[in-house]
Amino acid sequence: MKMLRLPCIVTWVFALATVAFPQATKPNIILILADDLGWADLGCYGNKFNETPHIDRLARQGLRFTQFYAGPVCSPTRTNLQSGQDQARFGITQHIPGHRRPYARLTDPAVPLQLPLEVETFAERLGVVGYQTGYFGKWHLGGAGFGPTQQGWKTAHETQGHTQPAVAGRAAPQRTAEFLTDRAVEFIGQHRTQPFLLQVSHYAVHIPLSTTPELEKKFSAKSPQPGYPSNPLYAGLLAELDASVGRIVAAVDAAGLAENTLILFLSDNGGIEHEQSGRIVTSNDPLRGEKGTLYEGGVRIPAIARWPGTIPAGRESGTPAITHDIYPTLVELGRATLPTTQPQDGVSLAAHLRNPAATLARNTLYWHLPHYHHSTPASSLRRGDWKLIEFFEGNVLELYNLAADPAEKNNLATREPARARELRDALAAWRTRVGARLPTPNPQHDPARATELGGGGGGGAKRKNKAAAP
């Protein structure tokens, strides 16, 4: 009789443990994505004008990356985040729908209007293993029929702009950062007893800049930081984003979920230093370039990870990583499996998060921007400390050693011709592997009108059927 009762006792104990520790094997995951936030804009990255106490605290409590990368523009990064695949595989190498320069020297490829529904997102993979998934904010990967709810996000609310209109129960418009935070905090409260995946995609600090009157007044009265634009509207908008991060972290901590919740904070590309009009927005100094370029200022982003008890606090990582890596990282941490029907271009950062001294099984990163944005069409790669940029106008090569020259001031292509050729060949081979689309000579080229903007991009695959997200 005792032998017969033992399995029952074991089963009862296991069930009790499952109730007491319902999330012991699957962490909650929160991804907070800023829009156009530059590498040099945060206090924890050295900024002395902007005030970001909550994000800075997040860095002190976790791991801060100094060489984390994204795509050069928003839709490409959002594509590789959701898919784990390089955006060049889909042709989403510019923001959707892109813009055209009809008289430029080259005709750049049209941008598809949506992420294909056939893609299995990380939300879908985690949903299969029991995660509740919530997406709030900017999507920018397709319109009706191609939104987050069609891609595995069970709860979703898309937004654009910095202000949300008044709705029933709220007499006045609400700032978007606050609105998204309200939705996020509510989602955390609703799903605190089960594993959840939450992505909050802010519109801050995207142009056109705006902030509250109180914050604009505060930063207008503040002494500027020497060598930095010190824009009061930008600083105020960033303060709104920072307050959102603070409230989300506080909600996690108040719910007693801190030690079982990974919080990732990222930007979708480098900072935009100036608008098309020329008006100054921010500065990525000491990095060169800005959003829409393949220089470091266009693709290197702030990145912070906090998970008390798992990620060591107060650490810094100089290991090059990229937004492609988020997908396999989250799938591994959530004890899900990678899809067998699509390639993965990232590597998991799970071991590196636990031990920042751990190395990654990769030494090369790639980018492809065959469009006119804040630069001319180009591709680039980073291998070790060496970075090559290939500009398609005139087949110009630029080669930099980032360890010695992170500001990319000294082009070594003519001094290191063999290395430049080797990296150019590797870049070309990669473009072939992923099916990257290239610009072509423009028969309508007019040097006097080359910088004029024309109609937006178009093209893209027709919608295909896809099973409902789990």
CATH superfamily of one domain: Alkaline Phosphatase, subunit A
Mean pLDDT: 92
At the fold tier of CATH, the topology name of one domain is: Alkaline Phosphatase, subunit A
N-to-C SSE string, H for helix and E for strand:
HEHEHEHEEEEHEHHEHEEEHHEEEEHE
Structural class: alpha/beta
Care to count the β-strands? Answer: 17
Task: Note down, in words, how this protein is organized.
This protein is of the alpha/beta class. It has a domain at 25-97 and 112-362: Alkaline Phosphatase, subunit A (3-Layer(aba) Sandwich). Helices cover 27% and strands 17% of the residues. The chain has helices at residues 2-20, 53-60, 74-83, 122-128, 176-190, 213-220, 232-254, 296-299, 326-333, 350-354, 417-434; strands at 28-34, 63-69, 106-107, 132-137, 155-158, 163-164, 174-175, 196-201, 261-267, 300-306, 315-317, 321-322, 364-369, 378-383, 386-391, 396-401, 440-441. The strands form four sheets. Strands 1, 2, 4, 5, 8, 9, 10, 11 and 12 form a nine-stranded mixed β-sheet that branches. A four-stranded antiparallel β-sheet has the order 13-14-15-16, with helices on one face. A two-stranded antiparallel sheet has the order 3-17. Helix 2 crosses helix 7 (232-254), helix 5 runs parallel beside helix 7 (232-254) and helix 6 (213-220) crosses helix 7. The longest helix is centred in the middle third of the chain and has 23 residues, at 232-254. The radius of gyration is 23 Å and the shape is globular. The protein starts with a helix and ends in a 29-residue tail after the last strand.
